[in-house]
Each structure stands twice: as structure tokens, then as C-alpha cells.
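Q&A log
Question type: sequence-to-structure
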Amino acid sequence: MSDNAQNNKRIAKNAMMLYIRLFLIMGVNFYMSRVVLQILGVEDLGIYNVVGGIVTMMTFLNSSLNITTQRFMNYEMGKGRFENLNKIFSMSFWSYAIIAIVVLAVCESIGLWFFYEHLNIPENRLDAAFWVYQLSILTFIINLLTVPYTSTIIAHEQMNFYAYLSIGDVILKLALLYVLSYISHDKLTFYAILMCAATLFIWFCNWIYCRMKFNECKLRLMWDSTTLKKLLSFSAWNSVGAIASSVNEQGVNIIINIFFNSALNGARAIAYQVKIAINSFAANFLTAVRPQLFKSYAEGKLDYMNKLVFSSTKFSIYLLLILILPILFNTEYILNLWLGEITPEMVSFTQLVIISVPVSTCFPVLANVSQATGKIKWYQISASIMFIMIPVCTYILYKCGMVVEWAFIMTFVWDVIGLVARLAILKKDIQFPIGKYIKKAILPPVLICMIVTFAIAYPITFIGISGWKFLILSSGVIIASILLCIWLIGLEKQEKQLIGAYIAKIIKHRKR
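Response status: OK
Response body:
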């Protein structure tokens, strides 16, 4: 078996493990969202979302530093320089510890000033919101110090443990919610305490596993200015886009709070819970692909890297279409089943949010290409401009008296513009084949989406049934139509052969 075939098999195996994890986590998370809404109420949920959002704006550090550590580890693995892994791990940990101290100082000064002076929080909930803010800071710092360990696990493609621990995380949080329902004191404050405790436990599990499994995770007191410079330079530019993305997400949240009320923040939180769940399908696949993408570039296998980009983008969008289209045509009924009590804004926000998901799911894999090469400066700058324009345009529109839904419309518009800009930068930096990318990764999903939406899904709405009957009928027809279209026009000949051979192998195995 060729190296590429072995790599593809490893990607498929890891992706399967991550999807098992995803289905379990998603089911628990959706149930948890219902329980949290019932226990806290829409106003307290909105307060938790917007107050925690001040700290969440700093989570760009988690994602960018995670990619930084993983990228350098995979690069050294691809070059065969395994002796450098401990140096990368140790320097990553100590630099993250310094960053944690800086973040703490910023949050307890500028962040606290913004909390008291600009957030629209009811007077009787101010004390609870303050403790939510403090606990959110502590939770963020724990998460930050977990990054070197999770990066190492993913870099080594140990997806089994990653999946098991993630499942354990949500089950623990569900158990803590059960405890919360019996607490008679302020539930918002205790919810933040319990979530922080769960985060600390997950850090401890990562620490134990990595200490036992990987030699490079034995932390050393060391200082290598050359390694530090490379890490900081890469993570600094990588953080530019992540900062802008965080400012976009939380900035819009705060702007909605300023112009409207915390109840709409709660509705937006529900919509983004749906978006996060849907995005997880693509993210799991890309998590399995990323180590091989980094390694293939380090080994000089650029053709294989491009094929990974095309196929991962295309199949990620296919997975999203299977989820998104049934939800779009059954949003109100699904939210009612999930939450029990909903508002009109929850329905409209959810529909507008998930429309932009297929576009934004292209961003991570393109970012991985840029990160693999190390040429990330102009890519991150262009991405940042696009992200920042969303809250800027939203603020201007709200000043002009526009309705709250315009925040989500602006997100879709600037996501499309951002995709074009990212491709142009990659073409300039590394001669990325834009024509092949559009032909192989974008056009097939777009064509399938248009056929299924306008020729099949939309006509079904005129049948005259509703409720669970329409949910089952429409979802079944839409999913079957998407799968048929994927097979007929969405797959290349080689892909059909591989899938056919895999299905034949499963059938043969079951007959034994």
C-alpha cells in the first residue's frame, strides 16, 4: 500500500472516530441547551452569553496557539526531527503561561471597566454577572494551559483519546447540570462555577495522558530564543485573523445588547448553538485531515496536499448540506421539539446563521494551507479586514434604525467576499490553483444545493402537511436527493471506485 493510501486510510479512521464522538456530544449538547434554558431562563442565558463573551473574545488565543503548536510539531515530524518535539512543547507551555498572565491583567482592568460602563445588565443581576465574568476568566486560563496537551494529542493523531475525553467532558457537564437543578441559590453563578470545575478536570486528564504517552510532554524549564521567535512570530500573525474573528462574533453580540436587550442575546446564543453543532461535522473531518496536510507540505508532496484541500472542502460541504437543508425547512418545529418554548427571533436567527455555514466552512482548510507553508501574514490581514467589517457594518445599520436580523445578513455578505479575498491571497503567496479549487471543491456542492433546494425541497412545502409528518417526509426526501445527486454529479470516477470498494468490503465482511 502506498504512503498516500495509508495516510488516506488513517484520515478515514480518525474521521470516523471523531464523528462517533460528534454524534454523542451533539445529542448531549442539544439536551443540555434545553436544560440550561429551562434552569436559567432566557434573560440569564443572555447575560451568561454576553458577559462570558467579553472573555470569549480572548479565545482567539486558544485556537491560534493550538494550530501553532500542532503545526510546528507536525512539521518536525514530517522532517523526521523528533528530537525537537520536547523543545516545542516546553516553549509553547511557558509562553502560554506568560500570555495567561497578560490576559488576566487586561481582563481585570480594561475588561472590568467595559463590564461596568457599557454592558446592559439589569441592576438586580449585576452581582451574579460579576462572578460569571471572574469565573469565565479562570475557565479561559485553564483552557489556555490545556492547549499544548491537546495540540500534541492531535499532532500524533491519537483521536481515540481525544474523542473519549470530549465525550466524558459533555457527560460530566450534563451531570453537573443535574446537580444545578437542586441548588436553591443563584443558579447563574453556580452554573459558571460548575463549568469552570469541569474545565479543570479536563485539563488534569489531558496532563495525565500526555505525561504517560508522549516523552515530549515532560515539561522542562528551558528557554530557546530561536524556537520562541518562530512560535511567537507564527502565532502572532495567526492570532490576527483569530482576534478579528472573535471581535466579529462577540462584537456583534455586544452591539445587539447595546441597541436591543439581553433576551435577543439569548436568542442569538441558541442560534449559534445550532451553528456550532452543524460546524462540528465539518470541523471533525478537518481535524483528521490537518496533521496529514501539514506533514505533506513538510515532505514536499504539494499535489497530495492540494488533493486533500479539494476533497476535504467538498466532502465537508456535502455533510453540511445533509444537515442544513432539512433544518432550514423545519426550523420552527425542530426548535420547538428541542427547547419547548421559543421566540420568533430564535427561528429567524437560526435560519440566517446556518445559511452562511457552507461558505465559512471553507475558511479553516484554506487557513491550514497558509499555516502549512508558514506564509500567513497577508492571508491573516485580509481575513481580519473581512471579519472586522461585519460588526462595523452592523453598528452603522443599527444606527440607521435597521432591524436586528441585519447582523446575520452582513455576516453572509462578508463571508462571501472573504472567501474570494482568501483565495486571491493564496494564489499570490503560493500559486494556489484557484481554478481547480472552484471546479473540484465549490461548483459540485453549489450545483447540488441549487437542484435539491429549488427542484425538490421547496415544492414539498406545498404538500399541505405539517409537524412531525412534514419533518420526516421532507428530511427523508431531501437527504435521499442530496445523496443521489452526490453520487451522480458530485463525485469523481476515482472517488466512486473507492467508495464502491469500501461498501463491497463491508458487505463481504458481514457475510462471513
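Response note: Residues 3-511 form one domain.
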